[in-house]
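ok so for the tutorial part 2 we go from a plain amino acid sequence to predicted structure tokens. step 1 is just haveing the sequence, like this:
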Amino acid sequence: MTNKFKSIIAVDIYLEKRKTREYVGRLSRSSSNFIFTYSDSYIYKDKAISLGPDLPLSSKKFASKKLFPSFEDRIPSKRNPAYSEYCKMVGIDRDEKDPLILVATLGQKGPSSFIFAPVFHHSITSDDVLEYRKHLHLTVREFCELFDIATSTLHRIEKNRTSGKDTLKRLEIYLNFPEVALYEIMKNGDKINETKRTLVEKILGREPKNCT
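step 2 — the prediction. this is what the tokens look like for a chain of 212 residues:
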């Protein structure tokens, strides 16, 4: 397994809508408990949906010695014949036992509209973003079109003039999971030149798998 999975410190949860993605909250871990906290912007919103019956909107913060059922249910059973293939697809070892890593990888997408995204200990830097864009041979405009980022935001990030926390968090996922970046390109690929899009798809398709 690559070290980057060991650097997962939390899982951010989003509610995927038809045109938007809304931040729901974060699953983290203390020395003895799993902690889930709803974001203020979500829990106090009209018509908010709870993550599960074990995590009602009547409370903002929850603690448990064991992984919450709403997260546990997103992890496929090891008895599933396809379990090894699932692990290979997300780049983890079949014998991985860390619940946080399993949720952040195998549990990323499930039958609900909630999306799980890993949070890494070491966030990417402005240099990482610039290097990634150049690696894909994309102009600022092309990069922003493919990944739904405002050009002004990307300019500030690349020049290290702003933290761009939310955008960096999203870009970090693309850097670590080429399959997620490819999904974004599938959605937005028509916005750039077809030859350039094909080149980017080939580059990402050649990225090494996140496994041992």
